[in-house]
């Protein structure tokens, strides 16, 4: 009887501990990293999911526009904390010179066909704290439709060789890319 009570107590304790564990975040942290011409480039972000909201992400009355605290059409390019770019060397992203360092990324999505990547000097803030006086600069991105639904927001950095690469942000039905040149 004593063993049965101990086993029951242990089972109850284990069940209680499992129930108290936090559920995984709705927009889990993610990282994209590449080395181009010996320079390490890393983007750290939180990856939201479409979750059945196809066609309702980027519209004027969509998810990004109606997010609590949103500064639509300026988007943090992810969820939760600000999306960060860290580079170990000087880069040119599109036509923007970006010295080695850490930056925050935002995206102006006001024109669905012509997104603009914004590189901010301000770092360490929550994702919605866009302040245009802190911009290092802006550069155009090439947008296109994705061949299929991209459920999880994803950044990729591709080394194209010769010190050149491509940074791409894809989510739902949009892919936006910009060339990178490492110096």
How are the SSEs ordered, and which strands pair?
Elements: H1 2-20, E1 29-36, E2 39-46, H2 63-66, E3 74-75, E4 83-87, E5 91-93, E6 96-98, E7 101-108, E8 116-120, E9 135-140, E10 142-161, E11 164-182
Antiparallel strand pairs: 1-2, 2-4, 3-7, 4-7, 5-6, 5-11, 7-8, 8-9, 10-11
Report on the structure:
With 183 residues, this protein is mostly beta strands. The protein has one domain. It contains two helices and eleven strands; from the N terminus they run H-E-E-H-E-E-E-E-E-E-E-E-E. It is globular. About 7% of the residues have low confidence.
From the structure above, extract its key features.
globular, mainly beta, four-stranded antiparallel sheet
Work out the strand percent. over 45%
Q: Which regions have little confidence, pLDDT < 50, spanning 5+ residues?
A: 7-11, 13-19
Distance between the termini: 74 Å
Residue-averaged pLDDT, rounded? 88
**What class, by secondary structure content?**
mainly beta
H/E series: HEEHEEEEEEEEE
Helix fraction bin: 10-25%
What quaternary form is this? Answer: single chain
Enumerate how many helices there are, as a single number: 2
Rg value: 21 Å
Estimate the global geometry from the Cα principal axes: globular
Number of strands: 11
How many domains? 1
């Amino acid at each position: 009887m004593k063993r049965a009570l101990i086993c029951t107590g242990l089972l109850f304790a284990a069940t209680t501990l499992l129930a108290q564990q936090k559920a995984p975040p709705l927009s889990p942290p993610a990282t994209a990293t590449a080395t181009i011409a010996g320079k390490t480039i890393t983007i750290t972000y939180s990856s939201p999911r479409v979750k059945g909201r196809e066609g309702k992400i980027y519209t004027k009355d969509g998810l990004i526009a109606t997010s609590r605290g949103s500064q639509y059409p300026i988007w943090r390019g992810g969820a939760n904390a600000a999306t960060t770019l860290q580079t170990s060397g000087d880069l040119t992203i599109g036509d923007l010179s970006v010295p080695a360092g850490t930056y925050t990324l935002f995206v102006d999505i006001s024109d669905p066909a012509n997104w603009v990547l914004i590189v901010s000097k301000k770092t360490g803030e929550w994702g919605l704290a866009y302040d245009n006086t802190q911009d290092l600069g802006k550069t155009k991105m090439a947008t296109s439709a994705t061949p299929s639904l991209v459920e999880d927001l994803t950044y990729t950095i591709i080394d194209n060789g010769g010190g050149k690469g491509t940074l791409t942000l894809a989510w739902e039905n949009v892919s936006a890319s910009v060339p990178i040149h490492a110096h």
